[in-house]
Task: inverse folding
């Protein structure tokens, strides 16, 4: 949104910034426009809100790739609060924007060592590792986080996503089961858990290590299931009636063989027939 900055004084902008903070709205481009036009030269008039406004400007500047502005605000806060973990977190975000990822991880590790119960730097570290494609390390870090913050539902969701990216379906299902304990009536969680279980089932069928006899038996059951489906979806023919009465279990045509292969996720049914 474009503002008529010529008609706005510093108190109007301060009140607008305060409203955005209370409503949890970032409005990054608007913040930068009003900061450059009005508030940057009126910092001394902000009183106790000055530090909050500087933090707000840091986030907006990083969103808009205004690294120099973010660096200036971080340096002001660092000079006033040299040992603040909160300011150190902003320094790590600035290092991320500069693509100095190792230095950013170092800052986050320092914060975690000083305050192990601080959730923000741990989440930031997981996000940074994920951004770099270091999924295994992100999973390890997030597991350590979940040991401390076991009731964090967003953490379980993210851990599930990371496990799915690595093909660890059993561990992903465990994460969804943990979420069910927090929200047992959520149909979305039930649906996602069902999707994961279904994927696991298809994988077991495709990569079955059962003995040939068991696989032969499974093929016969599949043949019976296919016949039941066809009897409900297609008009019965004389041949199918005779086959059902005789209880035959063999595959009569290549069409049925292909249908079975598709239904069972690529299971090599052809190798099981005599």
Result:
């Amino acid at each position: 949104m474009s503002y008529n900055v010529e008609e706005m004084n510093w108190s109007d902008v301060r009140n607008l910034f305060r409203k955005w903070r209370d409503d949890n709205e970032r409005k990054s481009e608007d913040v930068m426009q009003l900061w450059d036009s009005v508030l940057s030269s009126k910092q001394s008039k902000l009183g106790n809100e000055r530090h909050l406004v500087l933090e707000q400007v840091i986030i907006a500047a990083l969103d808009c790739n205004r690294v120099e502005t973010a660096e200036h605000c971080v340096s002001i806060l660092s000079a006033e609060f040299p040992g603040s973990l909160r300011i150190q977190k902003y320094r790590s975000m600035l290092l991320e924007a500069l693509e100095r990822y190792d230095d950013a991880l170092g800052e986050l590790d320092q914060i975690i060592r000083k305050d192990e119960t601080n959730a923000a730097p741990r989440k930031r570290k997981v996000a940074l590792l994920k951004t770099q494609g270091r999924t295994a390390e992100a999973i390890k870090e997030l597991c350590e986080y979940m040991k401390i913050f076991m009731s964090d539902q967003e953490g379980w969701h993210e851990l599930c996503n990371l496990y799915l990216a690595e093909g660890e379906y059993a561990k992903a299902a465990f994460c969804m089961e943990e979420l069910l304990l927090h929200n047992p009536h959520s149909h979305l969680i039930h649906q996602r858990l069902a999707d994961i279980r279904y994927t696991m089932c298809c994988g077991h069928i495709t990569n079955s290590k059962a003995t040939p006899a068991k696989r032969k038996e499974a093929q016969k059951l599949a043949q019976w299931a296919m016949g039941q489906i066809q009897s409900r979806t297609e008009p019965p023919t004389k041949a199918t009636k005779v086959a059902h009465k005789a209880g035959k279990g063999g595959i009569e045509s290549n069409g049925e063989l292909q249908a079975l292969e598709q239904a069972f996720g690529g299971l090599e049914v052809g190798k099981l027939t005599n």
Q: What stands out?
A: Residues 246-252, 265-274 have pLDDT under 50 and may be disordered. Residues 214-272 form one domain.
